[in-house]
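Running this now, will post back.
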Amino acid sequence: MNPLKILIVDDEPLARLRLRGLVEAIHDQRGELRLEVVAEAATGTQAGAWLREHACDLVLLDVQMPGPDGLQFADSLRERPNTPLIIFVTAHPSHALQAFEVEALDFLTKPVRRERLQAALAKAAQRLSERQAAVTLRDAAEPASEGLEGEFVTLTERGRLVRVPLAEVLYFKADQKYVVVRTATESRLMDGSLSDLEARWPERFLRIHRNALVAKHAVRELERHALVAPADADPDSGDGWAVRIVHVDEWLLVSRRQVAAVREALKGQGG
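Update: finished.
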């Protein structure tokens, strides 16, 4: 197994040094958990520049930093291909809910205990292994499949496994620590992240917002739509743009960054 490649992002040099020391100590202690700190950055801007030229599996990320804060930086990563996993490491526990809204894998508070970091890194290694296995499975299945008939979303419900045919999924929507799986007849909850789902089925689903992936065949209209009161509006909501979802007559917000992609998807339908 290749080592877990880690980028440390924190504006405090001593904090970066301590995190690096903890990671190296964990790597030396447990041979089965292979770890490598491949780079450090003092700001989200520096980290973004490094990621444009390099790749990593995991970012250990502070929240409060000069320029874009850690939450903004994590949110920007969600629209990149091969999104690295995020573990926040911060002295501000009040940001925990916001961290999971941007699909963080874990949230650690300073000073970080080695045992807690070790558990979080083991979780990251497991998630990465599952992601790689899913890609391998998808690649192996594609030559034998003409469409979506053989593909399923698997989730756990009341202690039992449930398989939802991918062809029936209209959209995935982040709901705090879970993902809503919406079909024409029901909604179910699953563990996971939108980034993993997007990486697994990029040809099937379109990211329309940081909190939603929509099946391309399910998009029917794009228009300005008053979904929320102005006081509650998301600054990334693209001046009120929304899409109507086929079969359920629901409207979902569209990020201003994704309006052009939604228009292209509609053109591809000939509508």
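The CA atoms of residues 1 and 241 lie 44 Å apart. More later if anyone needs it.
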